[in-house]
Structure formats: C-alpha cells, structure tokens
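Example with several molecule types.
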Amino acid sequence: MRSLLKKTLDGRKIILASKSPRRQELLKMLELDFEIRTKETDESYSENLKGAEVARYLAEKKALAFQGELNADDLLITSDTTVCVDDQILNKPENKEEAMKMLKQLSGRKHEVITACALFSKEGLKVFHDSTEVHFRELSLEEIEHYVDGYAPFDKAGAYGIQDFIGAIGVDRIHGSYYTVMGLPLHLLYKELKNLLEKK
Amino acid sequence: MRSLLKKTLDGRKIILASKSPRRQELLKMLELDFEIRTKETDESYSENLKGAEVARYLAEKKALAFQGELNADDLLITSDTTVCVDDQILNKPENKEEAMKMLKQLSGRKHEVITACALFSKEGLKVFHDSTEVHFRELSLEEIEHYVDGYAPFDKAGAYGIQDFIGAIGVDRIHGSYYTVMGLPLHLLYKELKNLLEKK
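Resulting structure tokens for the full complex:
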C-alpha cells in the first residue's frame, strides 16, 4: 500500500527525536518511514510559563538542540507532553512515593494533557499543540499501588499512561484526542506535515 | 505481576465470545486470562429499537446463544458496537461503495458509538453499555478511498476503526471512552466484573 503522505514527502528523511516506544508506534500510524535520533535535553523551564507554554517551549528546545546537525532534506519531529492539574504541572515521578502521590491527586477528577510538537527543517521551525481533558474516576489505594509497582510509570508525566492498565480501568472519559494524551496529536501532525510539504 | 482481578476471579474461567482481535487485545489490558469461544449469531434486530437498545439487544442475544453450554464456573463476555448518526445505525459495510458512503456521511461532524456488553454466568445475565461521541474533521475523497482500499474496514460498524489510519488523521476529538469506540468499555467491564465476583 502506498502511503498518502509519502507522495508529498518524497526524498525527505523524517527523524523522530523521541525515545518513547509509544511515540514511535503512533508515528507509524501515519504510514511514514522514519528514523529515531535522540539527544539528552535539559528539560527545565521558567516558572513563568504555564501549561501549553511549557510543552511548546520544551518541544522547541528539543528541536533547536539539533541546530546545525540537520541535512537539507531532513525533517525533524520533536514533542513534549505536559500534565496539568490545578495550575500545577506534573512532571515524571522520581520514585514510587511521588508516583503514588500524583495518581492520588488525579483520582476522582479531571486534568489536562497537552502535547506540543515542533517540526524543524530547512523550511524553518513550526510549533503546534493540542490539549485533551482526561477524567479519572476515584481510584483505590490498592489500584494505584498495583499500577505503580507493576508498570513503573517513571518515564511518564503525571505517572500514568492512558494506554496502560490504569487508563483502562480508571479513565471513564476524555474530551479531545486520545493520541494527544498518548504523546502525539496525530491529526495535527498529519495536517502540518501535509501543509509544510505541499508548500515546497 | 499478580493481576488485581484474578484474586477475585479465582477458579472462574473467563470466555470472550468475540472474533475481534481488537477486543482480545483490550481484554488483556485488564490482566485477565481468557479463552475465545465464538458462535455465529444472527445480528438482525427489530426496527423499533434505537441506538443503545440495539447494542444491548445484540450483546444479550450473543450471550443467550450459549445458554445450556456454560459450565458452573464459566463467565462469558459478549459485546456489540453500534455506530449512530442522525438516528440512523451504520452496520458493517458490505463493499467498497458502502464503506465510502458511510465515511462520507461521518465526515465533518460528530456521531455516537455505543458498545454494550453482556456478562453471562451462574449469577445470571447482566447487560451494560457506554456511549462515546466521536468527531471527524472533513475528510477528503482521497483520504477516504485510500483508507477503504488499504484497510478494508468491512468487519467494522460505520466502516472505520478509531485505532486505524483514518482515526489517527481524521478524528480530532472524542467525548467519552476511547476503548468504548474500539469495542469494549473497559472501565465499566472492570467494575462489573469486580462487583459480580465480590458478591460471590
């Protein structure tokens, strides 16, 4: 089967700058061939930034880390996912206690998940983002502990993956895109790739 | 890792009556061991039934087809997914033309996906359902044809899978559970299994 995007992408090399197997799996849904190239980036940000600004800032920072290293036909995709509750940002938990604390905070209420992407190439830098509201029912302590012990969600902002056990049993509804919560706003990424490449 | 549900499920044999690989994948997220047992069921229903009633009726019908065949410790799970738009139910498309017609009808608007489940065992029959609103942006004819030709969605009510290419590029938001759209309302199924087994 010929890919829809590949027609416009002819000759371009797509590079995904993410170690996340979830993001790699998501990008494959767009029928793209791509390579993975990762770089350690300092993920600190100014406290003046709020919600989407943080995700956008970090996606851009991850892209600019490749400045001077891209070839003329390279098209780099970076992204950052931020979990916000009560105007507070939940980062990746450092240990079991922090993970359990985050899940207790998310239990029985809604929060916001923002994923920003940056596209970096000879056409320049383009940053965009999408936001989804996620609602957890009340989680029991047993469920939270079982999840943290069994799934070790230490690489995940907010200490959970919606595609994991806790997302299956605990998330009763979302408002927005599921893929944005998983780590890539695929509908926007597709649109932006199409726009970028049709303008060539 | 010990399953949370298995503790209460001790000694029960879970049977999923579905050929759908998606449903099998979803049920695994609840950390359950189960076997697949399928039976051809006539999926016709009275025209007097609307939306959720159809899904509930068919889930129950699929369960009752096993009457007299279950052992004392068997717990059967059946389900049915219904796609509704304009008070009309979209079934599985019979051919390319019908699939394309359905996707054109869903393009640029919202519709409702209802999945009903039945649990059938010595405790009796329990039917429940969940409903999710799905919104497609405007799809191009090229996108629709590419999807139908490449993914052959003839086993899918409404002619699409949200976990496929067309769901990735075309669904910009849902309101409800993603897993309900995929084919099992996992949060409800978990709750009902827990309730049923704790009452033992």
